[in-house]
Amino acid sequence: MKTTPNRINLTDLWIGDILRIQPSGKIGKYEGIGKNGKARIKYGKKILLIESERLEVITDIEIQKNHELFLEKHAEPLIPNLPKTPTYTSFKNELDLHIIKLNPDLENAHPQMILDHQLVMCRAFINDAIEKKKNVVTIIHGKGTGALKEEVLHLLKEFANVRFAISVNGDGAQEVWLKY
């Protein structure tokens, strides 16, 4: 993102970017540029008009790490329907990481935010599979550019219980074999 000293270039922002308003510290979502050239920031149910020099971008990583803290401070979640800790009411041996299936509310979110959410859910899925002593599970990442597939394969290396992963469904999914 291009910025000048203490000034964010509003045209470089994405709708839905999370911003901190200074000096109040309020956190809100970017909703575009108002007629007066100020940023339109959604804070709770209100739209605030804020000068760009009073805004600070909050990174997607910071949001993921501090999501529970944000939920405590704000009446409305910054990332709709993102669970505090991913849980599954009934475990299925398959996880579809397509965002439209995983969390449709994030469909138009910033790509890095989507990827971060997909990886959080994938990690929770593998942990749950290990806890439930599943032998084989499938993670559907799709074909696309291959970026999500590479991230999933990298993530699988974190788990000592992963025996190996096999590309299936025309290279759009990974069949993951677990050991105990």
Describe it:
With 180 residues, the chain is of the alpha+beta class. It has two domains: 3-73, SH3 type barrels (Roll), CATH 2.30.30; 94-178, Ribosomal Protein S8, Chain: A, domain 1. Helices cover 27% and strands 28% of the residues. It contains five helices and eleven strands; from the N terminus they run E-E-E-E-E-E-E-H-H-E-H-H-E-H-E-E. The strands form three sheets. It has a five-stranded antiparallel beta sheet with strand order 6-5-4-3-7, with no helix packed on it. Strands 8-9-11-10 form a four-stranded mixed beta sheet. Strands 1-2 form a two-stranded antiparallel ribbon. A hairpin with a 4-residue loop joins strand 10 and strand 11 (173-178). The protein is elongated. The termini are far apart.
User: How confident overall, as mean pLDDT?
Assistant: 82
Please tally the β strands and state the result: 11
In CATH's first tier, which class of the largest domain applies?
A: Alpha Beta
State the major sheet.
Answer: 5 strands, antiparallel
Number of contiguous helices: 5
Globular, elongated, flat, extended or rod-shaped: what is the shape?
A: elongated
Strand order of the largest sheet: 6-5-4-3-7
Q: How many domains make up the 3D coordinates?
A: 2
Sheet/helix structural class: alpha+beta
The first-to-last residue Cα distance is: 46 Å
- Can you name the CATH architecture of the largest domain? 2-Layer Sandwich
CATH topology of the largest domain: Ribosomal Protein S8, Chain: A, domain 1
Radius of gyration: 19 Å
Return the string of H and E elements: EEEEEEEHHEHHEHEE
